[in-house]
Amino acid sequence: METEFPKNFDAAAQESALSRLWEENRVFEPDVQAGKKPFCIIMPPPNANDPLHVGHAMFIAIEDIFIRYHRMKGDAALWLPGTDHAGIETQFVFEKKLAKQGKSRFDFDRNTLYQMIWDYVRENSDIAVNQMKALGASADWSRFTFTLDPDIVALVLDTFEKLYKDGLVYRGERLVNYCTKCGTGYSELEVEYEERNDKLYFLKYPIKDGGEVVVATTRPETMLGDTAVAVNPKDGRFADLVGKTVLLPILNREIPIIADEMVDMAFGTGAVKITPAHDKADYETSERHTLAVIQVIGTDGRMTEEAGKFAGMKVAAARDAVMEEMGRLGLAEKIEAYTHNVGVCYRCHTVIEPLPLAQFFVKTRPLADRALKALDSKETIVLGAGREKILRDWLMNIKDWNISRQIVWGIRIPVWYDMKKNPDIVVGFLDAANALVQGPYGEISRTHDFADIERGLQFLRAPKEAEFVVSREKPKGVFLQETDSFDTWFSSGQWPAITLQTSAPGDFEYFYPTTVMETAYDILTRWVMRMMLLCIYMTGASPFQYVYLHGLVRDEKGRKMSKSIGNVVNPLDVVARYGADALRFALVMSTTPGNDSSVGEDKIRGMRNFVTKVWNASKFIDGYANKADLSNADQASGDASFKERLMSVVQDVTHHLEQLRPGQAAEIIHNEFWHWFCDEAIENVKKGNVSIGQARMGLQVFLKMLHPFMPFVTEALWQRMFRHEQEPLLARAQWPLAS
Ligand SMILES: [Zn+2]
User: Fold this and answer.
1) Cα-to-centroid distance, 78 and ligand 1 (Å)
2) CA 518 to CA 65: how far, in whole Å?
């Protein structure tokens, strides 16, 4: 016998039981059959050890709506979940934890540090998954993948080998965006720009045979690495200076005055210093004019031996010291205020130092051309308020991709150096007393055994010309493996292909290319673009038909959520107070791709009221139907128009879901359920104008349409009212047809 219909839906008490019901019945595992249409979304992998924020809740809500809708339509719907090792972010968090214990990464050899981070991530790896389940995510957890699963890693290494064999990987000493605090190089995409009020220093450089030339710079300390002064060939002011020699102040190094089109005649005096080791444009100039590259700032953020008496100073101190010296020499002309954009680390906001470092690069041009073709042919369509153009611009102007990262937490690059052939490689390792020993291998190996170096190895820095072999196994002989690991985006950029190749036999053939890639617009170029580059290269087909970009979730005043303002909505707190259905509906209601949306407590409370409305209407119909004699009351004058209206709602909602517009679909269901079904139709039942049989059928249809949006309350009602009449689980019930 049924228990009495409870007054309210008790979300907190029922959600986990409903989740279990679905999981026990394996509802989320797709019914893969030859005749069925595949529908596949690869979940953007959250960081394995991070709690979810409201942005995650947004993607979970939208993707779950698409998946649940297609499952009910009868498609083989696969939502493939996974988590990412998030190299830099995770190592950063772990190092902060170490710092609390008075330790740092420099206290451990590479292998030990890796194992420690592995254990830490394992300890926390259920956090994200359990939270996704709490939000009702109907992902197929039996196919769960992690970016460092051995079978995933093996495929990532395959891709690197293929790129290498195809001549698309090379080792270049390039200026990399280096964060001296994080101790790693970054790609162009990871550099953020901040406007800063700095100074512009005007420095006099004496000319060897008399006179002087004044250069303007924001970074006087880098003058120690100058290897030329440049002027624009069209600049008449300097015509007779080109070809002359300057005596670089302080160091008295002779450097040429060259002419190069890149010089902006309007900047400063029109003459600029060229410091190839510490400025990207200068580096390019140095290649055109074959100038020396002299590194005066090291990876530790301090001046190098090349900086003479300033060696060992931090950059800021060296700037002051250099200016003091220039003043003493009478060579500091003036200082002006100057506002400009400065590249900073996207993680810690330290100013990025362009530094020369030997790295592995992927040649991206051929890969990008193929991705552009996929956009041209509409093999992939981007939904995101005009953001396809941004993607195209990036693809057209793409630079080679630096895939080396100086961190241990990630997939170690499968490259080995024969140390006997490469004595110049600098190694750093912890000796038996746990003290750091570093220097060129040729010197270090005279006093230390290879086995000790290998065991305590922290890092190695191989010059660009170093000979190497690509191999998964250690080659026979005195070999050390590259200590850099791949950029995290190198593995997550292969995600749709490598997850489906490892999830279950036949998945790749059946589900690839996937249907929708749904993610936040702010990682369009960091992630979506990389997936197109690599997956097309690996498989020949673009990894997804549609890219759906959701916007940022802002607070009710339209402000970005931030800890400092204190307006951060924690999705799990909201679920605990209002239920997952209310949060999901509040996030999705009226959302459109590519645009930011606002969600505050009022909106969530309003949606909790809607959940209650659905509950109360169902309770009323259930009670009324139990009292009524359905066979007699089965027809009323308003039944036909009731049905007509209902079918038109089904048609509209279905149409919007087919068009990937969950926001509009949600709006229609909400308004029609509240203002038509409850306010009009149920009133008409009471007046006898609409039969209770029709209303009960209408409720079934609404529960089905509401299910993808608010899975918990609808399933709870289905279990109470309809499970004996149709499909026992609403999650598996057939989507209503508009006829
Ligand atoms: Zn940093």
Assistant:
1) 38
2) 12
Whole-number Å distance, alpha carbon 530 to ligand 1 midpoint, is 22
Ligand 1 centre distance from Cα of residue 364 (Å) = 25
Q: 178 CA to middle of ligand 1, Å?
A: 8
Give the span between the Cα atoms of 303 and 322, in whole angstroms: 12
Determine the distance separating the centroid of ligand 1 and the alpha carbon of 414, expressed in angstroms: 26
CA geometry: angle 362, 368, 371, nearest 5 deg:
135
C-alpha torsion angle, residues 324, 326, 327, 330 (rounded to 10): 160
* Concatenated DSSP letters of 202-259: EEEEEBTTS-EEEEEES-GGGGGG--EEEE-TT-GGGTTTTT-EEEETTTTEEEEEEE
- Domain residue spans in the chain? 189-354, 414-483, 599-732
What CATH superfamily is the domain 189-354?
Answer: Valyl/Leucyl/Isoleucyl-tRNA synthetase, editing domain (3.90.740.10)
CA distances from 322 to 203, 224, 325 (A): 11, 9, 5
Q: What is the pLDDT of residue 1?
A: 41
pLDDT band at 631 (very low <50, low <70, confident <90, very high): low
Domain 599-732 CATH assignment equals 1.10.730.10? yes
- Whether residue 143 is predicted with pLDDT greater than 90 in this model: the reply is yes
Distance 191 CA to ligand 1 centre (A): 10
Distance 190 CA to ligand 1 centre (A): 10
DSSP single-letter state for residue 637: T
Residue 109 structure tokens: 């050899």
Instruction: Quote the ligand 1 centre to 282 CA distance (angstroms).
Output: 23
At 356-376, the pLDDT tens digits run: 989 999 999 999 999 999 999
pLDDT at residue number 633: 53
What span, in angstroms and rounded, lies between the C-alpha atoms of 429 and 448? 10
Cis ω before 513 (30° cut-off from 0):
yes
What does the buried/exposed string (b/e) look like for 447-483 if buried means 16 or more CB atoms within 10 Å of the residue's CB?
Answer: ebeeeebbebbbbbbbeeebebebeeeeeeebbbbbb
Same fold, 189-354 and 599-732: no
Q: What is the pLDDT of residues 496-545, one digit of tens each?
A: 999 999 999 999 999 999 999 999 998 899 999 999 999 999 999 999 99
How are beta strands 145-146 and 212-217 bridged, if at all? unpaired
- pLDDT tens for residues 484-497? 999 999 999 999 99
- The pair phi, psi for residue 418, each rounded to 5°, is -80, 110
Q: What is the pTM of this model?
A: 0.84
Q: Are 486 and 411 in contact (CB under 8 A)?
A: yes
